[in-house]
C-alpha cells in the first residue's frame, strides 16, 4: 500500500523531518572535511546539545515563575523537577567529553575556538539569573502564607505544598551547582588547574560557582533547623 506523503509545510521528505527540521538541525555541525581534529565533532555537538537543553530549562523556569504567581505550587514543583532532571542529564552528558585526550583537545582549542569561552554561553547566562526570576514570587508566597523558610522546613506536613516547592527549589539549586562542579572537574581533567581559559580567566575561578547557591535563604534555613534541634557537639 502506498504511504501517504507529508502533510506539513517545510523542508524534508517526511513529516518527521519537516516537524523536527532535521535538515536545518543537522546542517549546524561543521562538515567532516572542515573539522580541525576528528574529536572536534564531539566537542561541538556536546555544546550544541547543551544549548538546546539550557533553552528548555530557561523556558520552563518562566513557567515556574508564572505558576508561582498563579498559586499553583504543585505545578511549579513539577516543572522544577523537570528542570532538575535536565540539569542532571547535562551533568551526565558533559563527562563524555572526558573521553577525549587532552592533547587532542589542544588542537581544537588552538585552531577552532578563537577566544571562545563557556562564560559566553547564552543559555548558561540566562540560568545565572534564575534567582531574580524565582525568589521574588516565592517571597510573595511566603508573605501570603505568613511563614518563614524555617517554619516551612520545620513542619513539612503542615505546609505540605509549600514544603514540596521549597524542596524542589533546593533540588534545582543543587543540580545547578553539581553541574558546575562536574564541569570544573572536566576542565581540570582536560587542561589542568594551573592554567587560564582562552579569555585569560584562571581555571580555578570556576570553583566559586560550585558553591554559590541561587536560594541561599533556603540553605540557611536547613542550618537553622539543625541548630534548633540543639545538638551537643
Ligand atoms: C574540553 C572541555 C572543556 C574545558 C577544558 C572547559 C574549560 C572551561 C574554562 C577554563 C572555563 C572558565 C573560564 C572561561 O570560560 O573563560 C569554562 C567555563 C564554562 N564552560 Fe567549559 N570547558 C569544557 C567543556 C565545556 C562543555 C562541554 C560545556 C557545555 C556543555 C561547557 C560550558 C561552560 C560554561 C557554561 C562555562 C561557564 C561556567 C561557570 O561560570 O561556572 N564547557 N570552561
Topology:
Blueprint (H helix, E strand, L loop, with lengths): L14 H6 L1 H4 L14 H30 L3 H22 L7 H11 L9 H7 L1 H16 L3 H6 L5 H31 L15 H4 L6 H13 L5
The structure holds protoporphyrin IX containing FE.
CATH topology: Methane Monooxygenase Hydroxylase, Chain G, domain 1
What is the CATH architecture descriptor?
Up-down Bundle
Shape: flat
Average pLDDT confidence is 96
Oligomer: single chain
Summary?
It contains eleven helices and no strands. It has 233 residues and is mainly alpha-helical. Helix 3 (40-69) packs parallel to helix 6.
How would you describe the overall organization of this protein?
By secondary structure, this protein is mainly alpha-helical. It has a single domain (36-228), classed as Methane Monooxygenase Hydroxylase, Chain G, domain 1, CATH 1.20.58. Helices cover 64% and strands 0% of the residues. The protein has helices spanning 15-20, 22-25, 40-69, 73-94, 102-112, 122-128, 130-145, 149-154, 160-190, 206-209, 216-228. The model has no long low-confidence stretch (mean pLDDT 96). The structure holds protoporphyrin IX containing FE. Protoporphyrin IX containing FE (HEM) binds at residues 46-47, 50, 94, 97, 105, 117-119, 121, 124, 180, 183, 186-187, 190-191, 197, 199, 201, 203, 206, 209.
Task: Give short descriptive properties of this protein.
233 residues, mainly alpha, binds protoporphyrin IX containing FE
Amino acid at each position: 500500500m502506498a504511504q501517504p506523503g507529508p502533510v506539513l509545510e517545510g523542508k524534508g521528505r517526511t513529516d518527521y523531518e519537516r516537524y523536527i527540521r532535521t535538515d536545518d538541525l543537522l546542517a549546524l555541525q561543521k562538515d567532516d572535511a572542515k573539522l580541525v581534529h576528528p574529536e572536534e565533532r564531539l566537542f561541538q555537538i556536546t555544546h550544541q546539545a547543551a544549548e538546546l537543553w539550557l533553552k528548555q530549562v530557561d523556558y520552563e523556569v518562566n513557567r515556574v515563575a508564572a505558576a508561582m504567581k498563579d498559586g499553583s505550587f504543585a505545578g511549579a514543583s513539577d516543572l522544577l523537577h523537570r528542570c532538575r532532571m535536565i540539569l542532571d542529564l547535562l551533568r551526565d552528558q558533559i563527562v563524555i567529553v572526558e573521553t577525549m585526550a587532552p592533547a587532542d583537545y589542544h588542537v581544537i582549542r588552538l585552531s577552532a575556538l578563537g577566544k571562545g569561552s563557556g562564560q559566553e554561553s547564552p543559555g548558561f547566562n540566562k540560568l545565572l539569573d534564575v534567582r531574580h526570576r524565582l525568589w521574588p514570587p516565592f517571597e510573595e508566597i511566603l508573605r501570603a502564607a505568613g511563614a518563614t523558610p524555617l517554619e516551612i522546613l520545620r513542619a513539612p506536613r503542615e505546609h505540605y505544598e509549600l514544603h514540596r516547592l521549597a524542596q524542589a527549589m533546593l533540588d534545582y539549586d543543587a543540580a545547578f551547582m553539581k553541574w558546575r562542579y562536574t564541569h570544573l572537574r572536566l576542565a581540570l581533567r582536560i587542561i589542568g588547574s594551573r592554567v587560564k581559559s582562552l579569555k585569560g580567566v584562571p581555571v580555578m575561578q570556576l570553583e566559586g560557582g560550585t558553591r554559590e547557591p541561587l536560594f541561599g535563604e533556603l540553605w540557611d534555613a536547613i542550618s537553622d533547623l539543625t541548630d534548633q534541634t540543639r545538638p551537643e557537639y
